[in-house]
Amino acid sequence: MELMIILFLLVLINLLLAVGRTSRKKWVGRTMSVISFLLLIVTFLFVIRALI
Questions:
Q1: Cys-Cys with 50: which of 2, 14, 20, 44 at CB 3.0–4.6 Å?
Q2: pTM of the model
Q3: Residue 32 main-chain phi, psi, to 5 deg
Q4: What DSSP designation does 44 have?
Q5: Is residue 33 part of a domain?
């Protein structure tokens, strides 16, 4: 179950970064980058949980 959550979060992070980089407004790109970074921390916590 954790593996599916991890994969979903990684795909979501990838999509957010792709949309954020192609956005013409700087604040949208910056916001999506911050959200992606926070989701990456959550993903690492799920990886640690899956390994234990």
A1: 2
A2: 0.86
A3: -65, -35
A4: H
A5: yes
